[in-house]
Design a protein that fits this description.
- The protein has helices at residues 10-35, 46-64, 81-88, 90-108, 116-141, 146-175, 182-214, 253-268, 280-288, 315-350, and strands at residues 68-71, 74-76, 230-233, 236-239.
- It is mainly alpha-helical.
- A two-stranded antiparallel ribbon has the order 1-2. Strands 3-4 form a two-stranded antiparallel ribbon.
- It contains ten helices and four strands.
- Helix 2 (46-64) packs antiparallel against helix 3, helix 3 packs across helix 6 (146-175) and helix 6 (146-175) runs antiparallel to helix 7.
- It has one domain: Arp2/3 complex 21 kDa subunit ARPC3 (Orthogonal Bundle), CATH 1.10.1760.
C-alpha cells in the first residue's frame, strides 16, 4: 500500500508529513520506556531491546518483499504494524514501520518521498493504533493463555489492514489529485484489503506464535500473561511470593541470530518467488484512475531502485542482493536509532 508521488496533492501531503512527524516524536518518547527494559519482564533488559526492535524492522522489511496473490491479477504484502506493535510495543512499533518506509523510499524508490508522511500515517500509525488497541482489548477479554495472544494477534492484524485502506481513502477524499467516484474507491480498497488482511493475519499469528513458543518473555504483548499464583490462607486468597522467572538472564542472542538469518533468506531467496501482480493499491489505482497524475519517483535512478542492483544482469541475483542489502541497512539503521533512544532513556534516569 505504498502511496507514490502524485496521488495526493502538495498541501495535504505536507499536513500528513506534519502528522507523521508528530506521531514519530510522540513515539520516540513512548519508545524510551519500552526500550528501557520493563521491570518484571522476565529479565528483559534495555540493553537487549534495541537489537530486538531493529530485528523486527528488518524482518518486516524482508516480509514486505513477499507479495502473495489474493485475487485475479492482484497481490498483497505485509504492512507489519500489528506484528511490530505486539512484538516490541506500540510506540516502538510505529518507529519500526517508519524506519522500514524510510529505507524503502530512499534506497529502493518504493513509496513516494513527498508521500512519506502519508505512508507513515496510513501504514504505520493507523495500523498500530487499530491493531494494538484491538489486541489489548481481546487479551483482556480472553483467557490469559499463550493461545489467546496468538488469536488476538490474528484478529488485530486482520482488522488493521482494511482500516489502513479506509484511512488512505479518507486522505484521498481530502487531497486526491484526480476526480474519481470515492464510494467506488472505498469499496474497492476495503474489499481487496480484507483479503490482504487475511494474509497479514496469518503471517502475524505464525510469527508471534513462533516467538512465544521459544521466548515468551520477549513478546511485549505477552508480558504479564501469567496470572499470579493464589494461595488460600485462613480462608482468604492471597498472592503467593513469585519464584524467580526461569528466563531471567537468558540471552536473546539465539533468537536474534535466527531472526536475522530468516530475514536474509526471505529477502535474498524467497522473494524471487513473490507474486509479480500489482498490490491492492496499485490495482485499485489503475482501475479507478487514481494514478492518472502519478509522478516518477525522485530516487528512480537509485542503484537499488525497484529492488534490483544496478549492473547485475541476472534477475535472481540482482533481486536477492537488493533484498540482502535492504535487510542489512534496515537492521543497522533501526538498531542504531533504537539504541540512541534507549541510551537517552538511561541518561535521563541517571540524571
Amino acid at each position: 500500500m505504498h502511496v507514490p508521488d502524485g496521488f495526493i496533492n502538495a498541501p495535504v501531503s505536507a499536513v500528513a508529513g506534519v502528522v507523521a512527524a508528530g506521531a514519530v516524536a510522540v513515539s520516540l518518547r513512548g519508545a524510551r520506556r519500552e526500550l528501557g527494559g520493563a521491570p518484571g519482564a522476565e529479565g528483559l533488559g534495555g540493553d537487549r531491546t534495541a537489537p530486538l526492535a531493529g530485528l523486527v524492522a528488518a524482518f518486516v522489511f524482508a516480509v514486505q518483499m513477499l507479495n502473495f496473490p489474493v485475487a485475479a491479477g492482484t497481490s498483497g504484502h505485509l504492512l507489519g504494524g500489528a506484528l511490530a506493535a505486539i512484538l516490541v510495543g506500540p510506540w516502538t512499533g510505529v518507529l519500526c514501520i517508519a524506519v522500514v518506509l524510510l529505507m524503502q523510499g530512499v534506497l529502493f524508490a518504493d513509496g513516494g518521498l513527498t508521500a512519506l508522511g502519508v505512508n507513515i500515517t496510513v501504514m504505520g500509525v493507523v495500523t498500530v493504533v487499530v491493531a494494538y488497541g484491538l489486541f489489548r482489548g481481546l487479551v483482556l477479554l480472553l483467557p490469559r493463555t499463550r493461545a489467546s495472544v496468538t488469536v488476538a494477534s490474528f484478529v488485530a492484524a486482520l482488522v488493521s489492514v482494511p482500516a489502513a485502506a479506509a484511512a488512505f481513502t479518507l486522505v484521498y477524499a481530502i487531497g486526491g489529485t484526480t476526480d474519481v467516484p470515492l464510494p467506488k474507491v472505498l469499496t474497492a480498497m476495503v474489499g481487496v484489503h480484507v483479503l490482504i488482511g487475511i494474509g497479514e493475519a496469518v503471517i502475524t499469528m505464525l510469527t508471534v506464535g513462533a516467538v512465544i513458543a521459544v521466548r515468551p518473555d520477549l513478546v511485549y504483548g505477552a508480558r504479564g500473561l501469567t496470572a499470579p499464583l493464589k494461595l488460600r490462607v485462613d480462608g482468604e486468597l492471597v498472592d503467593a511470593v513469585p519464584a524467580a522467572a526461569p528466563a531471567t538472564g537468558r540471552s536473546p542472542r539465539k533468537l536474534w541470530i535466527g531472526g536475522v538469518v530468516t530475514a536474509l533468506v526471505l529477502a535474498g531467496f524467497v522473494s524471487f518467488y513473490a507474486s509479480a501482480s500489482p498490490d491492492g493499491l496499485e490495482k485499485v489505482a489503475a482501475d479507478q484512475g487514481i494514478d492518472a497524475k502519478a509522478k516518477e519517483h525522485a530516487a528512480a535512478g537509485s542503484p537499488l531502485a525497484d529492488y534490483g542492483v544496478e549492473g547485475v544482469e541476472t534477475a535472481r541475483l540482482s533481486g536477492g542482493l537488493a533484498g540482502v542489502i535492504g535487510v542489512g541497512a534496515t537492521l543497522a539503521v533501526g538498531t542504531g536509532a533504537f539504541w540512541v533512544v534507549r541510551r537517552r532513556r538511561a541518561a535521563a534516569l541517571e540524571a
